[in-house]
């Protein structure tokens, strides 16, 4: 995986591209315009209704007031049942080369000269539109490719597996994880009785619950989050030959997460944290980049694994089938209107193009029905594909007429096939791969309602996930289970889940039981198979970039302004985003009498909103910060969350005040230290080059997990 550049050469919105032009809706610029009704009639006044006299009744004939109020009353559409809270962006996808043409006729994946426009929507799953971004949850990662052959939707998540194996259980699962029906509590949380009762009754959930209790459920950013197609799909080449495929998105910034304490505080400080992060990165030109990769399995190897390829609760370990890179997606433009684009975009797993087809995965088959059904109720009828964000760049020529919100004006006498009066058009002609043709396979069997025996191993891959985690990741998983089950009132449900965990790993079950007040199992329910997959650990992700990492630089009156500016400039030069925080907004007086502009007041922000903290030098400045409890807590909290923390000269004393432990803060003058992500230098106003180098290195590693934070107050 290559390191991304802040501005890729081919990045940026290209409104001159014919494809991009076709995606453009009729934009409304209200600059220098006059107020009109929906019918284009100009009006002179919109502050008062028409009444009988100044204090009399309002007249029904006031068509302007009625139209205005009626439109307002109908502004809201039903929110998505799941994935209600989202954020979106436009961009493009481009293959690296043509190697995949051996496996698929989908030209947008095989022609490196093609740059396919995309729209991506990221989302949480369980919460309503008004919930916070940083809740513990699965994240949606849905990509609409506007290809020349039609729209293709890769509707995925940031986890490669799902809670259930068959779509018939989806309503049950969603009902269980949603707020409980008697009191509509809790919002956007899985820590309640009904969800865990469902888990206890459905052991197929255990692999997904391991992912949900891991750091994967707390992404630092949508730009630092993997995406997966979840299901096994099928690629079909030009000769009609099929190959099983799993789709992967890998962020070039690496896969990084928040910690649980941070997420809860961010939900109060900035509930739009992930949404804002995506928006600001694109606006600043630090375009998010993701590499699309595939795992390919020949049809002859369909039964070569110890799990079923059609089981959506299973992964193919990358050590068994490597992920091969296909191309890169770059997000370059924010939507102009959230409702018109991000809210109205409609994804559908059955939106496929020639060269991509389905398998008999029972969860995928149900999704192929459900998504279309959902869009019909949300978007008011069958013509939602005509909404600009959903409109294909490929020509649309069919006899589907009329209906709510029909925007096309169809001409001619015929609206049926076959016909002679319309010249036989539109004509259903052509052969694969110029047209879509369903993959042919022989299917036979009795009509039954029964799960395949090959779907019944619910624990082995949950164990694989546990075995693959680093110690700190295991600690977080245990803490998550303890928190979630600690919110469950029914002790029998707690005990039942622990019994399932004992099927996964005895140590895991014992540690969880110790924290939730139920007896630990006496012995393992089954032996741990000992296998692991290093690719599953986030500690093995890319840690070589600080692009867009946010760093708080704390200052006050009397600061060493020259050194502070050098640190800020150096961090910017590496692609980070430093912000100068002071006790009050506006100008800060430096030790030499010069002014330094603060970007924000410290008490309007919080350490949880930054990736690292720098305390600038200057004795007077540090004394003022040390007397400010909010500033001291700011530093202590960053240290507690294992974030990189740096200090210059007198700034080192603030680290001591904040309770930093276990690192050498007593080094003498002229000494630079870097230990456990804490970088300090007492160099009398000089900023050593190694100071910034060490800080950048610590930021790229994301966290200093080796730091002992147990004794640090926050």
UniProtKB/TrEMBL annotation:
All residue ranges annotated as the Catalase core domain in the record: 36-425
Basic and acidic residues: which segments have biased composition? 12-28
Catalytic reaction equation(s): 2 H2O2 = O2 + 2 H2O
Molecular-function annotations in GO: catalase activity; heme binding; metal ion binding
Active site residues per record: 83, 157
Checking CDD domains in the record gives:
catalase_clade_2, GATase1_catalase
**Protein's UniProt keywords contain Metal-binding:** yes
Q: Which cofactor does it need?
A: heme
Against InterPro entries, the record matches this protein to: Catalase, Catalase_AS, Catalase_clade2, Catalase_clade2_helical, Catalase_core, Catalase_haem_BS, Catalase_immune_responsive, Catalase_large_C
Q: What class of enzyme is it?
A: oxidoreductase
Q: Which controlled-vocabulary keywords does the entry list?
A: Heme, Hydrogen peroxide, Iron, Metal-binding, Oxidoreductase, Peroxidase
- Per UniProt, where does heme bind? 80, 121, 170, 367, 371, 378
> Among its keywords, does the record have Metal-binding?
yes
Q: Which Pfam families match?
A: Catalase, Catalase-rel, Catalase_C
Task: Tell me its EC number(s), please.
Answer: 1.11.1.6
Q: What does this protein do?
A: Decomposes hydrogen peroxide into water and oxygen; serves to protect cells from the toxic effects of hydrogen peroxide.
Protein name per its UniProtKB record = Catalase
Species? Goodfellowiella coeruleoviolacea
Taxonomic lineage of this organism?
Bacteria, Bacillati, Actinomycetota, Actinomycetes, Pseudonocardiales
């Amino acid at each position: 995986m290559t390191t991304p550049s802040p501005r890729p050469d081919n990045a940026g919105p290209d409104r001159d591209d014919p494809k991009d032009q076709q995606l453009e809706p009729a934009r409304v610029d209200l600059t220098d315009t006059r107020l009109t009704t929906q019918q284009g009639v100009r009006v002179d006044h919109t502050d008062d209704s028409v009444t009988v006299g100044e204090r009399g009744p309002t007249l029904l004939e006031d068509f302007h007031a009625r139209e205005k109020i009626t439109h307002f009353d109908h502004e809201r559409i039903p929110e998505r049942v799941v994935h209600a809270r989202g954020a979106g962006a436009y961009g493009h996808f481009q293959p690296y080369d043509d190697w995949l043409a051996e496996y698929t006729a989908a030209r947008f994946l095989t022609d490196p000269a093609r740059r396919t426009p995309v729209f991506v929507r990221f989302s949480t799953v369980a919460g309503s539109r008004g919930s916070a971004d940083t809740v513990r949850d699965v994240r949606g990662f849905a990509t609409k490719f506007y290809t020349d052959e039609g729209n293709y939707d890769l509707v995925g998540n940031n986890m490669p597996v799902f809670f259930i194996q068959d779509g018939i259980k989806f309503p049950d699962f969603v009902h269980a994880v949603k707020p409980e029906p008697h009191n509509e509590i809790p919002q956007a949380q899985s820590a309640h009785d009904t969800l865990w009762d469902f888990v206890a009754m459905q052991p197929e959930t255990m692999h997904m619950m391991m992912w949900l209790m891991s750091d994967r459920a707390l992404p630092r950013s949508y730009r630092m989050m993997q995406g997966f197609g979840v299901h096994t799909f099928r690629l079909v080449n030009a000769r009609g030959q099929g190959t099983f495929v799993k789709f992967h998105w890998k962020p070039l910034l690496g896969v990084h997460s928040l910690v649980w304490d941070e997420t809860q505080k961010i939900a109060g400080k900035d509930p739009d944290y992930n949404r804002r992060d995506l928006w600001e990165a694109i606006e600043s030109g630090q375009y998010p980049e993701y590499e699309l990769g595939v795992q390919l399995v020949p049809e002859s190897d369909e039964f070569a694994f110890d799990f079923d390829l059609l089981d959506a609760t299973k992964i193919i370990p990358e050590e068994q089938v490597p992920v091969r890179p296909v191309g890169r997606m770059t997000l370059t433009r924010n939507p102009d209107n959230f409702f018109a684009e991000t809210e109205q975009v409609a994804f559908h797993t059955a939106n496929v193009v020639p060269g991509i087809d389905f398998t008999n995965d029972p969860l995928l088959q149900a999704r192929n029905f459900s998504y279309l059904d959902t869009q019909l109720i949300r978007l008011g009828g069958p013509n939602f594909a005509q909404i600009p964000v959903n409109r294909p760049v490929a020509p649309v020529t069919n006899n589907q007429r009329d209906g709510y919100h029909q925007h096309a004006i169809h001409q001619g006498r015929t609206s049926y096939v076959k016909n002679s009066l319309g010249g036989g058009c539109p004509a259903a002609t052509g052969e694969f791969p110029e047209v879509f043709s369903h993959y042919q396979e022989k299917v036979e069997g009795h009509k039954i309602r029964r799960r395949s025996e090959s779907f019944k191993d619910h624990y082995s891959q949950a164990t694989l996930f546990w075995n693959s985690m680093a110690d700190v990741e295991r600690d977080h998983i245990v803490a998550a289970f303890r928190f979630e089950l600690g919110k469950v009132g029914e002790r029998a449900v707690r005990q039942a889940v622990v019994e399932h965990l004992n099927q996964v790993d005895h140590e895991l079950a014992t540690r969880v039981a110790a924290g939730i007040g139920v007896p630990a199992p006496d012995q393992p329910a089954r032996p741990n198979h000992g296998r692991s997959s290093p690719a599953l650990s986030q500690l093995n992700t890319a840690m070589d970039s600080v692009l867009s990492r946010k760093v708080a630089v704390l200052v006050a009156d009397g600061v060493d302004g020259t050194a502070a500016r050098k640190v800020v400039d150096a961090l910017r030069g590496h692609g980070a985003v430093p912000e100068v925080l002071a006790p009050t907004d506006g100008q800060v007086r430096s030790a030499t009498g010069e002014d330094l502009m603060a970007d924000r007041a410290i008490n309007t922000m919080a350490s949880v909103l930054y990736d690292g903290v720098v305390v600038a030098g200057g004795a007077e400045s540090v004394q003022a910060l040390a007397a400010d409890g909010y500033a001291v807590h700011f530093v202590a909290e960053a240290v507690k969350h294992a974030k990189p923390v740096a200090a210059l000269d007198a700034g080192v004393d603030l680290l001591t005040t904040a309770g930093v432990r276990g690192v050498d803060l007593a080094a003498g003058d002229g000494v630079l230290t870097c230990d456990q992500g804490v970088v300090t230098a007492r160099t009398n106003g000089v900023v050593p080059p190694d100071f910034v180098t060490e800080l950048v290195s610590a930021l790229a590693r994301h966290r200093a997990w080796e730091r002992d934070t147990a004794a640090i107050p926050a």
